[in-house]
Write a structure and sequence with these properties.
The chain is 35% helix and 23% strand. By secondary structure, it is of the alpha/beta class. The strands form 3 sheets. A 6-stranded mixed β-sheet has the order 3-2-1-8-10-9, sandwiched between helices.
């Protein structure tokens, strides 16, 4: 079977075409600019050309595209957007209007002349198909798995960082704390996870789709490294381009979790937070006041543990006193999230489990369940 796995981050989209008839090392892999970076590039081209901008599509990851849109307005140029596309910049439409964006309908945009049109979306399967065809590869798959970072649709006046961490806490309650269960089929996505739901809208309707959070996918993917999987007690840290997630695990059972913004973390600060996670006394309110998302510990208290690190900013922990292990799941660190997505399909859909785990070559050496 073939699974197209796309781990869509702030800087890159890491794409894996998993084929159970081939070795995992010979799977097709692409590390490409993320959709928000691509959209930002297209907006800046409109800015340079002095053209008004018309945005259609759906809610997607912000970051670079938001900055490019604001730069366009600061240049004195108009930005028009449909409501659905505008939620990329803020779930509160009044906040989007306050940024200077004019909200219009699709029909109004269709009638506009001399504007640069840019479609906003995280998932563009046709772009993947074009790339595969360029290398004489068949652009076909049996299922798709997508990871995105979703803050969720927080109520007006409520911190989106707190709302995000409320969701993580809720996952632990509903998923019984097993990191292998933190995924959704397309009909299971909570109604407040608007970015994931936008991916569902962008998907081919006739194919099975699994969705997951980017950081959680990377944590699960790190367990495909035999050395990480062999450790019963461990902390898996993913240092992404924008966000850092650390999960304290016994086997695959979560004992604590911590999330922050990568650019606000020095090595010393991160070491302190990680040791607090291990000791079981990390203060979630302290993390939030430091502009992070939060932290929660669930009873496990250890003096020391094994630390594994993935992510494009893993160098933050180079030379750390924690002696971290830089995980290389299936021989490719940048595809950790994509491997996690494939593993999630195996855990979510029992009929595919044997075939997927055999291809991952981790029937014995893959993730092992732990207990509280």
């Amino acid at each position: 079977m073939k699974i197209l796995a796309l781990d869509i981050g702030a800087g890159t989209q890491d794409i894996l075409l998993f084929d159970s008839t081939n070795t995992i090392e010979n799977s097709i892999k692409m590390v490409m600019p993320s959709p928000t970076v691509i959209a930002a590039t297209r907006i800046r081209e409109a800015t340079s050309a002095g053209q008004p901008l018309a945005l259609t599509g759906v809610n997607m990851g912000g970051g670079p595209v938001t900055g490019a849109m604001q730069g366009h307005i600061q240049s004195g140029l108009a930005v028009y957007a449909t409501v659905e596309a505008a939620t990329t910049f803020d779930d509160d439409i009044e906040m989007v209007r306050a940024m200077g964006v004019s909200l219009v309908t699709d029909d109004e945009i269709e009638s506009m002349r001399n504007v640069r049109r840019v479609v906003l979306r995280d998932l563009d399967l046709e772009m993947v198909r074009v790339a595969l065809r360029a290398f004489e590869m068949s652009p076909e798959w049996d299922a798709v798995a997508v990871a995105v970072f979703d803050h969720g649709d927080s109520p007006p006046g409520y911190s989106d960082r707190k709302f995000r961490f409320d969701h993580l806490r809720r996952q632990m309650d509903q998923g019984k704390r097993d990191v292998t269960s933190f995924c959704y089929l397309s009909n299971e996505v909570p109604e407040y996870m608007t970015r994931m739901l936008a991916v569902v809208k962008s998907m081919d309707a006739d194919l099975p789709l699994l969705l997951m959070d980017t950081a959680e996918a990377a944590v699960l993917g790190a367990l495909e490294d035999d050395r990480v999987a062999s450790q019963r007690c461990k902390v898996s840290v993913n240092l992404g381009n924008e966000h850092t997630l650390a999960v304290h695990l016994h086997g695959t059972i979560i004992q604590g979790i911590f999330e922050h913004h990568t650019h606000l973390l020095t090595r010393d600060k991160l070491e302190s937070y990680l040791m607090g996670l291990v000791h079981g006394d990390l203060d979630g309110q302290e993390v939030w006041l430091d502009q992070g998302h939060g932290a929660v510990t669930l009873g496990a208290k250890e003096d020391k543990t094994f630390f594994s690190v993935t992510g494009p900013f893993r160098h933050v922990l180079e030379g750390s006193t924690l002696d971290p292990y830089f995980a290389v799941p299936c021989g490719d660190m940048m595809l950790a999230g994509s491997f996690g997505l494939v593993r999630a399909w195996a855990e979510k859909h029992e009929p595919w489990r044997k075939e997927i785990t055999h291809a991952l070559r981790s029937v014995e050496s893959g993730p092992t369940a732990g207990s509280h």
